[in-house]
Amino acid sequence: MLTASTDVGSSGQWQTIGNRAAITLLNGAIKQQRVSHAYLFTGPNRVGKRTLAIDFARALNCNAQDIAAPGWSDLQPDPPCGQCSACDRIARSNFADVQIITSATQTSKDADPQAAQRRTMLGIDLIKDLQSDAILEPYEGRVKVFIIDEANRMSPDAANALLKTLEEPPSSVHIILTAPSAELVPETIASRCHLVRLRSVPPEAIAEALIEHHSVPQAEAQTLAKMSMGAPGWALAALNDPSLIDARKQSASRIIGVIRADLPDRFDYAFEMTREFRRDRMSALDEIARWLEILRDIAMLQNELNQHIVFGDRIEELSDLANKLTTEDIARATSSAQNTRDALMSNGYPQLAFDAMMLETPTVA
Fold first, then answer.
1. Which listed CATH number (2.60.40, 1.10.287, 1.20.272, 1.10.890) goes with 245-360?
2. In the prediction, which pLDDT does 11 show?
3. Which one of 30, 241, 271, 333 is most buried, counting C-beta atoms within 10 A?
4. Which residues touch 165 (CB under 8 Å, ≥6 apart)?
């Protein structure tokens, strides 16, 4: 039973780790009754964009005022309260008026249930289904919320269709898009959304959340937080699946080998990464993230900032690379990896992207 001692803070029960500025902005919009009809949440992979969108949907539909438990009215928490049926069911993806739309979402035209799993883009049928649902009044909530995850993967037809809804949105509908950056979303779409930028989360904040909310021992929490590189989503995933840590170490070993390899072997690697991207898009993007972390570690070692490296177990190999490569080499390789990541996220041709990255990777003498 809920009582006045129930652990509900006056600032609400946002599940998002870090990025307090974004939470404050959204909380303020609700308090001032100035919630926009469309938002674009941007930030690094696994930083918490989807979690924040779900939190916002919970806050918009929170029914804390309907709870009649003794002493509850004295708490007066900001939404989301985390205790009402709406907050609970939205968090469990069991609320009719909150929908999360991804490329794998089944459409009304999918005769084969497996067809959605094979899609790599957000097509126009997904947006048409959204539009058909948006014109209906909310079924059980205060408002309808549509979360379009990885909106940078919308097809041109889908983006054009969505534009019509953004220009004339129903009053009881809010649309939240997520993407790595606003530049990867069509300008006509981004300009009609309220932009909310999420930043990488400090490791101290991630470790604190792991300790307080997931009962993780301090040493383990600090290790996961450091390895996450500011992405709490990765830390939480690794907590539930330790194989991710082993996969991360294997990825680091593979990348160090590629940096030392000759061009034919690098092109073989590019071919394998292209195949991996087509099999498992997220896995390939994670590999690019490891490239950026390895290159960052080399740069840290070049500047004698050993305490900041992530792959401490590979310090000898990384130190050798730091001595053999120039700062210009690392800067060029980092820029190439970032360009490859952006190309893959915006539906570029993967083979060309990986081949170009291999050509830009410096040669170790």
1. 1.20.272
2. 45
3. 333
4. 127, 130, 131, 134, 175
